[in-house]
User: Fold these one by one.
Assistant:
Number 1:
Amino acid sequence: MPTPTRPTRLTDLKRAAILEAAIDEFRSAGYEATSMDRIAARAEVSKRTVYNHFPSKEVLFIEIMHQLWEASREGEELVYRPDLPLRDQLLELVGHKMRLLHGEAFVSLARVAIAAAIHSPERAQAMVARMNEREEGLTVWLRAAAADGRLKIDDPVFAAHQLQGLVKTFAFWPQITLGQPPLRPRERKRVAESAVDMFLAWYA
Amino acid sequence: MPTPTRPTRLTDLKRAAILEAAIDEFRSAGYEATSMDRIAARAEVSKRTVYNHFPSKEVLFIEIMHQLWEASREGEELVYRPDLPLRDQLLELVGHKMRLLHGEAFVSLARVAIAAAIHSPERAQAMVARMNEREEGLTVWLRAAAADGRLKIDDPVFAAHQLQGLVKTFAFWPQITLGQPPLRPRERKRVAESAVDMFLAWYA
DNA sequence: AGGAAACTACACCGAGCAGTGTAATTTCTC
DNA sequence: GAGAAATTACACTGCTCGGTGTAGTTTCCT
């Protein structure tokens, strides 16, 4: 065997099964309505084993949030290129964002996180901060394009929110709050192009 | 006395106190995490009295949804006027929408409803339908303007969503999901004008 | 092979939950 | 002032939950 004896330890399989089951339960029922018994049953694991891996429901939940957060990274930044058309670059940026928005891990994270944030003002703030971090990419691109004189933008943060709003109203909020299916490729293309064109019509 | 003996019946006061307390609890804690005992305590009313007015938690919740829904109406429709500038009319429409979005009743409703919808696909659909009803106003206005030849819009529903997205990304979603404070008048003006200008730059 | 580590079934605890029944007290209405 | 209606305190049912303790079994590692 290539790898000695690592990958298939029982305890690791159990732990993975618990996490997978917990994600499913939390996502479909929310934090409050999910019980440790249900998680154990779904993972086909003793309830005691769940508590041997995770000392409490809260810790298990936080662990899942971390895991989904990391899983939804995978984002290399796009940098501003003075030599390429704005429209092409923006389409690339928006397309990249939409691919992230429709990732399984990201949707799971967002649904659970937003459901939790709605009723916990303290936790909400931390999530805001981190979510906004991830949206920085577009802002810096806009700032660079403005500094280069190719966009008439005085407030890149505001403008970035506008462009994101144009996209999220189709490709994020309906999926998160209403469980609607992700956009099909044709729809994604239309949303992206229409958003970028409208944006450039005003700011270019 | 002008009004004979109507307004201050004890049973009406109790009922009102229960509804008020229930709204507070549901809004801040969500449906699952709110208990009838807490509602009774907050309303300074016997738990039994709560059940004398409302046969179950579910019925009480639905009653509240109805009440908030009605309270957030107050919306007269704006009709398309061929003789007035598009920008003025759209600003009026958007301003009207933002006033609704920031109403106390509407925010309460939306927070509770969305929190409930996130984990209940069946209920979510009904809410979508009714929410979209209320967004019809802008769509018909756009359709009229397009038919009049003053806007180059082939899909008014899509375009209406875009304009709404431009507004909601500042004036709705942050308030609902993150509990952020409503926009100040200056910010509202800026969001509305910028959204309308960008919209018209592309579709006019 | 043998000891350590992990897993399991199961019983249990204390708490909170939605909802009910009742008998006594207060309030309304005429 | 009398009868009806509403409110109250309180006890109670049946259920679910998060979490623990235990004793026996299985799996891992050397």
Number 2:
Amino acid sequence: MSFDLESFLPYRLNVAATRISRRFAALYEAEAGLTVPEWRVLAHLDRSGAVSVRDIHARVHLDKSMVSRAASRLEQAGLVQKSGHDRDRRLVALELTGQGRALMHRLSQIATGFQADLIAELGPEAGALDRALTRLSGGKD
Amino acid sequence: MSFDLESFLPYRLNVAATRISRRFAALYEAEAGLTVPEWRVLAHLDRSGAVSVRDIHARVHLDKSMVSRAASRLEQAGLVQKSGHDRDRRLVALELTGQGRALMHRLSQIATGFQADLIAELGPEAGALDRALTRLSGGKD
DNA sequence: TCGATGTCATTGCTGTTGCAACGACATTAA
DNA sequence: TTAATGTCGTTGCAACAGCAATGACATCGA
């Protein structure tokens, strides 16, 4: 029997993920000209307060280099403020500016709306998808 | 209320997808030194018989350029044979060589095993995930 | 037949990604 | 203190993705 890629779970998962990721990326690209890493950094900072690059790297599944570069761009754009940590001068303290917070306010509404549409589209399977994703994020590695 | 990326569906989906995609990619990388596009082309050819670049591009969510380059590399490696279409000389006819079929035989076992592990890991949510992915691949765009 | 338009595969180009190295700094042990 | 080791953020670099342009060929209409 030959192998059927169409029904192969990793493949299907990947296709679905990039598809909806792109749909959503188009929204915040239109709203604020953000890239994916920029969006993630911004979204994380909205919750975390002042935080280091390493911290974001660990939580948001972005390489350190991307966090660093995204943060620089966001700083240029006036959305993020970068300052030094008091005790440990290796660390950077990243936090949203007023402008950054204002943007995240708008973006979080867009995101919430997008997610609501998605859940509606999923119908009864939404809850199960949620649980499945939780499982897939649990294991080692 | 601030926005929580951790529970945002598109984000979670993306993280899960890249995570398991990498896990699996490590397997066929170890087995045959393949990249993602190469794997997809190979897997598709295993089912389809002789087929054009355009065809694969349409079915496998890969840019034409990547299909083309992957096919060239696979040809170099002796896994794929590239010939011209009889009627339409713009078209290329891609098909597996004996070596390619042999490799896909091994790979499809690895893939099937991997999927089985994944489904086991998912437990009762596996079926629902499947249905959810089907829904997510249905819509326009 | 001949031109206009369209399609196919390939190639170039540019921005993005992820890894590896680097320099600055911190921490620990002697 | 000083040396050794470890961690942090940044940068360099090479591989890769996606887009646009190209050239070869096909098709359609006059």
Number 3:
Amino acid sequence: MAQHKKEAFGPKEQNLATFAKAISHPARIAILSQLAKRNECICGELVDVLPLAQSTVSQHLKELKTAGLIDGTIDGPRSCYCINWKAFEKFYNDFSSLFTKLKEANAKCC
Amino acid sequence: MAQHKKEAFGPKEQNLATFAKAISHPARIAILSQLAKRNECICGELVDVLPLAQSTVSQHLKELKTAGLIDGTIDGPRSCYCINWKAFEKFYNDFSSLFTKLKEANAKCC
DNA sequence: TTGCTTAATCGTTTTTATACGATGAATATA
DNA sequence: TATATTCATCGTATAAAAACGATTAAGCAA
């Protein structure tokens, strides 16, 4: 009895939740920060910076890519990643509207 | 070999990740939306609205409360919840700065 | 071709999350 | 007092996440 019921919710909530999950691990936030800091495509330098094994970093990169937050291209034997800004902006806007909506509920209760 | 290494990252990344995880499930986003919509404290009406069992809803509420996003008070045999706007604003600001930082990395690569 | 580098994937283990029914504690109400 | 209501907690089961070593595949260099 643990089949997930995420499909039982609306697409808006599902999308936001999926995005939130993508950035719900410090390693993935660190990856995004690195990609932003270097302002360029990065491949395995992330492994040197992060306190994680190569396979684990690759796994996190895959999740970010699946979520659409980063793009990856093959550059010879390496992989080059960068932020997918378009997707990011979409999610940021969705988040902003959620927060705005919640802000309107700033009532005195409890 | 699966001990989590979240402590190996900075507090900023950890905080953001914790918040993101709190809203990484559609049920919890739905709960927050309901709390916002009703603009008042809500107890078990959530169970009627959500496609989940009572114990499951209670569990999600607990997680939101642990993350500090909602407050709960006991009202007789019921429990009354509302959004903790202060905590929410803090996290929203943290998120905004992350997004702003990433936006500056909007370079042409890949 | 052979060997090296790079990174994705596989297989496995441990931990955490999700979900539910059942139980229990507390407050109302009859 | 007895009973019903409300909700948190417990116990449990299953699924997913997190992490690593080992292997594999692909490109490059000698």
Number 4:
Amino acid sequence: MPKARLTPASVTEAAAALVDEVGFDNLSMGLLAERLGIKTPSLYKHVSSQADLAHRIAILAMTEAGDVIRDAIQGRSGSDALAAGAQAMRTYVREHPGRYTAANAVRPTGPDDPFIPASERVLASWAAMLSGYGLDPGQEIHAMRTLRSVLHGFATLEAAGGFQIDTSVDESFTWLINFIDQGLRAGASTGAR
Amino acid sequence: MPKARLTPASVTEAAAALVDEVGFDNLSMGLLAERLGIKTPSLYKHVSSQADLAHRIAILAMTEAGDVIRDAIQGRSGSDALAAGAQAMRTYVREHPGRYTAANAVRPTGPDDPFIPASERVLASWAAMLSGYGLDPGQEIHAMRTLRSVLHGFATLEAAGGFQIDTSVDESFTWLINFIDQGLRAGASTGAR
DNA sequence: CACAGCGAGCTAATGCGATTAGCTTAAGGC
DNA sequence: GCCTTAAGCTAATCGCATTAGCTCGCTGTG
């Protein structure tokens, strides 16, 4: 076998870094090739298409995000776990906006797509965190969806520059986390919607 | 003046309808031209580029969404206004996913971009609705951002098929609205974060 | 009623980015 | 030291956005 300078994994890693710099929409095979010091067609020796590349970036991103969130929640519970997990996710998205966009641009290609377990790991972390609130089992799915909605929505809006710079966005995010925490505590005690 | 079959407005309208069918990412000048019964280059007599077209769709979408939300909130207050406004927005996004994507893909081109007043109208409706909760003035910005985050996040995730079909998404949305309503009421009485 | 101009639409051509075909060559296993 | 294999290259194709320049019908005017 000849020298293995580049691999699908290393190409994906480089593409992920690139996408965080220039934005997911501005990813091009030519730009990536230039970064890697090779000609554009040579990329096809490692990834089968640009869609494939985007898909690999998405899996990478989802895996990294899953790790970061799990580590943040690790050893904490209740409000602390929520705050740590949410902050970890926001930090990840801020540092890797392109990767995050890629992760959200992807649809699983089939039942054995590695993207599926990767995203399930993220969901599992959130579920573990939520379980600490002792919600009514029937409520958990709704709480989960609400949580995902706020976090995803905030991250997306922030990444898109959707918030005016007047008031601190950091402050808004802690306020938001607190808001969710209060609601979950209340919901747990009430058991009602 | 020759016959005015097509105008920038009518082309934009057709493009908006198209984008809702095929998805924003699959919009192409060729496809739109075909729909309009003209050849691709003729489109450039009405819009200056595909980016221009996308921008016009975004303005249209933001304007329509603003109308829909304003009308829903009209004559209601408090929980009712929140529920009606949120439902109106979700309905709009479900019926016009392509338009909504376009609206979020756009950055204002300058200080006199008509997109700016259009989006401000949306924000103004939410602000009017929130004022009914009598929040502490310092909290309003955070509440607004939180509200936008949940609604945007939910709409986006739903449009992307991010929710598994197991449990009713409608139910989750009413739960979410209720969750926000409870939180806002509590925040109003407490005045605390 | 003839006519002059404008502008919508058309065809032909350009350019860029993704992708494919086929060649070349260096490296690792025998 | 040879032989296979695959990484990388050049040349070519394709699709899609965009530009250039022509044409012709409508409309307002004399």
